[in-house]
Amino acid sequence: MYREAFTRNYKCIISPFTRVSYIHPYAKSFGRISALTPIRLREYASGNTKEELTARERIDLLLDPGSFREYDTFVEHQCTDFGMEKNKIIGDGVVTGHGTINGRRIFVFSQDFTAFGGSLSKMHAQKICKIMDKAVLVGAPVVGLNDSGGARIQEGGAVYSPALTDFTFMVRDTSYLFVTGPDVVKAVTNEDVTQEELGGAKAHTVNVRDFIDFLPLSNREQAPTRYTDDPITREDPSLNHIIPFDSTKAYDVRDVILRLVDDTNFFEVMPDYAKNIVIGFARMGGQTVSIVGNQPSVSSGVLDINCSVKAARFVRFCDAFNIPIITLVDVPGFLPGTAQEHNGIIRHGAKLLYAYAEATVPKITIILRKAYGGAYDVMSSKHLRGDINYAWPTGEIAVMGAKGAVEIIFRHVEDRTQAEKEYIGRYFK
């Protein structure tokens, strides 16, 4: 009995729109199908001056052509207060359903700002929760295209939903994310602030399809393997010259990453936040891998609060979805200063330490140049159960740099310069 019930439910999930297709003739006979057409026309006709895409156009661009199957097309809100019973729009401001990206099933919802401002009502929320429940049942990801003014006042925080997701994509000058808008901020604090300043998109990434293609459908599956002409035995002599031997000279760690991965294809995550560390996805031998690397061209690649939190969250995500982690180390230490100490650099730095220590996926660490002090330990060192640790010929593993060591060891010596040369000659050959 239970198996038969599960089979019926499963078939409803895999091919749900057949039922809706049968509803159409009956809906038309009752005059409801005529109400659906103005909604789609309204999406096209009531766009703002930026000519934004409609909810369905966004879904069509995201998914494989012709793969979208919509749920609950004719759902309406049930509110009877404030005259809302006279103002109903089919779909209630959100389009939900499932489709495919590169042939792999995903569930998707797209909020329609032209219908009640995309605001969140009871039925609106139930439509979204329905596809989330189905996604959990079949083990598929959910992509939400948020375009909402918030909770529907007549019924009773839409902004919290993106905070519960794994990754959030935002479009500069179009996407804004805040709990209270500029008008409320001005009324409460008398502070003039624009939408962009309050909750604008400092991180800008557009290719959601590429991002999805790197990931498994759920934590119960493996990431997809993609064919590549890039041989796994390829050698790149330019790697011998990218990293300067002088530890004070900067370079871009992304130049190293692009030469290590398949087809120079690296999908960076959060590129405009905490730029002193680089995180993202790539492939090696066709297999998805994640990469964490210190960025010497920004603050010498030093670890601070923001980059520690950024990397820790990424490591935990990769561990949850069985994605191997490759760490490229060139770190002089933690950022010193009262601001960092007072804001909790110890607590936030420990987040990255715990993330690496608790990760059970394969972890490969490559020391490109500097690996100093506690920051070296935090960056997936062998002391945190790193599976394989390599060192570049330019690698330096030490408690601190030569200059700092001389300042402490020879603090009573008059000729510090000579002492520094002797120290470097002895330990940094």
UniProtKB/TrEMBL annotation:
Which species is this record about? Racocetra fulgida
| Family annotation (Pfam families) | Carboxyl_trans
Assembly information from the UniProt record: The holoenzyme is a dodecamer composed of 6 PCCA/alpha subunits and 6 PCCB/beta subunits.
Q: What is its EC number?
A: 6.4.1.3
Name of this chain's protein? Propionyl-CoA carboxylase beta chain, mitochondrial
Q: Which GO terms describe its molecular function?
A: propionyl-CoA carboxylase activity
Q: Which domain of life is it from?
A: Eukaryota
Q: Which InterPro entries does this chain map to?
A: AccD/PCCB, AcCoA_carboxyl_beta, ClpP/crotonase-like_dom_sf, COA_CT_C, COA_CT_N
> What is the catalytic activity of this protein?
propanoyl-CoA + hydrogencarbonate + ATP = (S)-methylmalonyl-CoA + ADP + phosphate + H(+); butanoyl-CoA + hydrogencarbonate + ATP = (2S)-ethylmalonyl-CoA + ADP + phosphate + H(+)
- Boundaries of each CoA carboxyltransferase N-terminal domain copy? 16-161
This protein's pathway reads: Metabolic intermediate metabolism; propanoyl-CoA degradation; succinyl-CoA from propanoyl-CoA: step 1/3
- All copies of the CoA carboxyltransferase C-terminal domain together span 231-429
Enzyme class at the top of the EC tree? ligase
Its cellular-component GO annotations read:
mitochondrion
